[in-house]
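Summary of Year 1 activities. Much of the first year was spent building the evaluation harness for sequence design. The harness presents a backbone, in tokenized form, and records the residue chosen at every position. We chose the following record to illustrate the format because it has been used consistently in internal testing since the harness was completed.
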């Protein structure tokens, strides 16, 4: 069920504290932590504490929570002193989603080209 923790979800386990992560921010509804495979000098994931399988489901079923995630990306960028940064939501395996829990990548600290990868 959407919003409920999933036993087999890596990010739900991070939220629960059963898997360690380098947490940089936490609010009542979100957690932000450093990516273990960074693709830029700053690469932080911002996730809702509640489980939604991707950004599309999160936006459709919990728009205020989606807004919380997006607001936290700005807070992360501010704390990391990023003047320019990219926010990426991968939705579906064809777009590179590998963890089925909605999450935003905050990437910065280097120039970003367009179009991406």
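For this record, the design step produced the sequence shown next.
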């Amino acid at each position: 069920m959407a919003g409920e923790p999933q036993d087999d979800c890596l990010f739900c386990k991070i939220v629960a504290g059963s898997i360690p992560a380098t947490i940089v921010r936490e609010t009542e509804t979100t957690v932000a932590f450093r990516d273990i495979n960074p693709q830029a000098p700053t690469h932080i994931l911002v996730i809702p504490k509640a489980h939604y399988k991707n950004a599309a489901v999160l936006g459709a079923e919990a728009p205020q929570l989606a807004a919380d995630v997006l607001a936290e990306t700005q807070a992360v960028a501010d704390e990391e002193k990023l003047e320019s940064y990219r926010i990426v939501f991968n939705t579906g395996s064809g777009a590179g989603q590998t963890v089925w829990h909605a999450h935003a990548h905050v990437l910065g600290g280097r120039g970003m080209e367009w179009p991406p990868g």
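Strands lie at 23-26, 30-34, 42-48, 85-88, 104-108. Quantitative recovery figures across the full test set are reported in Table 2.
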